[in-house]
Records
---
Amino acid sequence: MIYDNTYDNTRDIPKRTLVFFLMVDTSGSQGEAAKIEFLNEAVKELHYGLWEIAGQSPDMQIKVAAMAFSQEVRWQESRSVNVEEFYWNLPKMDGRPNLGAAFEALNEKLSRKAYMNEPWGCYVPVILLVSDGVSGDDYTGGLEKLKENKWFQAGVKLAAGISKNADREMLAGFTGNQEAVFTLDDSGVVRDMIHLMGKMIILKD
């Protein structure tokens, strides 16, 4: 019997890319030590969950694009990175949360000219907004423009409030669905988000 090892090297198999966009409010209002610690742990758990999904999906490559926003918007990397290479580095938390600027920056990256440009194509993106829904600028124009973006329309959108006082109505305006709005108040919330994200990816694909 002749053994054909043509397909042994799975790294050579083309994979479509799923880009996970993480948008984190790093304004001064989030600067309490307890919030910072919980936020860091939540992102680490989220990263681990994404890594698990990637390991269970041989035909999918997961990349992460992380944004920190306050008065300015800062992308952690100049490009999206493989989930295995992603490292969360929380910036200094100060300033006011300019959601409108964050939405405009996301809109620019949700394009085949930017982060959605992959050689074997992309799945619909997954976008997680971590914020209490309070904005230091008029975010409505930026959000309405973002909603016209085809990638955003098709994408899986979730939001997580950093406190129980988060403006859930505003966050639901971003996700388009109250059930996709969470509160980071216990360790099980991130697993719930990952579970919902997995189900929505299957439905959207």
Note: Strands lie at 16-25, 60-69, 73-75, 81-82, 126-130, 156-161, 181-183.
---
Amino acid sequence: MIVVLKPQTTQDKIDHLVGWLNNQGIQIHLSVGSEYTIIGLIGNTDKVDVELLESLDMVMAVRRVGEPFKQCSRMFHPEDTVITVGNAKIGGGNFCMIAGPCSVESEAQILEVAQKVKASGAHILRGGAFKPRTSPYAFQGLRAEGLTLLSEAKRVTGLPLISEIMNVNHLPLFEDVDIIQVGARNMQNFDLLQELGHINKPILLKRGLANTLKELLMSAEYIMAGGNEQVILCERGIRTFETYTRNTLDLSAVPKLHEISHLPVVVDPSHATGEVKLVPSMALAAAACGADGLMVEVHNDPAHARCDGAQSLTPEQFNKLAAQVRAVLEVIRS
């Protein structure tokens, strides 16, 4: 349920209403917009006297929210959420380029890639330290050492960091990581999501391989219900019957998520397609359809990469793509 207050409602009246609702055991989510203030009621709202609420002078409307996800809903929070990390902003008309290798392999590798993607316009450096792999024999990442190398790249370039977490016990190691990524395989690891809801750090949540948008938003709700409202949604392709690409990139998810949720949405064309030749076209399409950013894999020597080299751009290819993305954004914003 949401309560829309009339413009110019005083803070004293808002505080009084919030206190009254809290006394009834209702959790409150307050959204202050440029024109309206919206109070989201979370919990068992059956005992709330809707007619009494509607009769209050300060109340413009009372509406019930049909979706099971409340805090993610645009009804609760009409204005776009903007995530700020260092000098980078994601959402609300800001476009963010996230780039770097699938996996951190060495100090020389991550420093070279970090410096080159920054020179091309990347705002955030990605790099995997803990790598969930289908095969137990595949390279699993450098783990804590990889995070240390990422921190060094951050020190040298000034780029904020994003890296994937697999186990809540690893959380202390992510102190210097600016955005924590939850991978597709952990999208419904609810214990992990609940713990991430208690920290003050942005979370990038990737859509699962076979999950609906509703399920993605419900997973985001787990994080937000814990108090962490800094959630970024990521479309990275879903598994279909198609075999010519690694996954099927669902670009229709971008405008649909923007319609029903206020959270920013970024697209990962690298994991979606699995082929480097497909990454640029899908990246440009993502920018054109309204994505708030891109997450692109870049490796200085893809042929010898220990992880996902087939879908990784070289720094030179990324430089060209970044210029093309800026051109597309300029066209659609004009």
Note: DSSP finds ten helices and 14 strands in the chain.
---
Amino acid sequence: MTPSGPITWNALFADVPVVVRTVVLDAGHGGHDPGAVSNGRWEKDDVLRLALAVRNLLQAQGIRVVMTRSTDIFVPLTERSATANRNNADLFVSIHRNASEHSTANGVENFIYTSAPANTENAASLVLAEVVAAGVQRDRGLKRGNFSVLRHTSAPAMLLELGFITNTRDNQLFDQNFNAYAAAITRGIMRWF
């Protein structure tokens, strides 16, 4: 009979370090900064709800999650990046909703820093692909941008724009696919790890 259980496990893997990954989730805007607003809907509320849902799913996978905000407070952009850097984040994910003067503008897109390396591009592509698979009007693709949180965060960082708050169908999809979007972001992150 082969021995098994905790004693055998500890004997086999006692010298193997346990790797705990850290993800910093950044719910955009907050407090006196509502972000995009359309027909009584506020970006800061949508993204906080989604970030909290993603946090719960990641924690269930054994990921250490640090939130830049977990309530409706204002956090300066520099502090968001500083939180990631202080916590030696393995990945930084900033969640937003887009807006446009044109109500027909729609879809999701994921931004990385203008000079981000291939591993950051890979992480952002995986997350975007999972979100698109969960059901969106339009895949606007992976883009590069000079956003403060991307520029000042040491870890691979992305800024996910999850549909246009100024588009009726994108809002319907956000509500209908809320759990699917949270799961999709989590899957993309776990695939990258």
Note: The radius of gyration is 18 Å.
---
Amino acid sequence: MIKRRKLKVEELNRIDIQEFKEAKKIGLTVVLDNIRSLNNIGSVFRTSDAFRVDEILLCGITAKPPHIEIHKTALGAEDSVAWRYFEETLTAVNELKADGYTVLSIEQAENSTSLSNLHLDAAKKYAIVLGHEVHGVQQSVIDASHGCIEIPQYGTKHSLNISVATGIVIWSFYSQLSGNETE
């Protein structure tokens, strides 16, 4: 039988905040469109740190750091991951498009691409938009996006919590874009 001792935090050899800021990122920006839950926002920061997301754009009613409720789930990732605030999500999306990003909304929509069928080009820059916990991504933002990605689901519920959806999508992007260069 193989022994599996749980590693101590010191044994994980994680980089510090400055090293994170200087490290190569995966070419992905996360846009949060009117996210109301501070815990969800913090979770997105933490997942973005784990997979070296370039930046998070906080839009509309989405709260911004510093905030104790964001910190509870981010656990400091709000200090490592770059972020900016926009009053309007559409302004953020248009800026990303002007900067050469392919913008994809995570939404169940006509002609969406299943995440399992998504093929990314590591030479491109991408942005994903995640929407409000009840209303999803605004239709005007969907209209401005290059496309929509849908996470396949096989149960009775029609959606996932935003922090869970973000984790699934970021992992998929990381798997295709990192080329293990960030390890």
Note: The beta strands are 28-33, 55-59, 82-86, 101-106, 113-114, 125-131, 147-150.
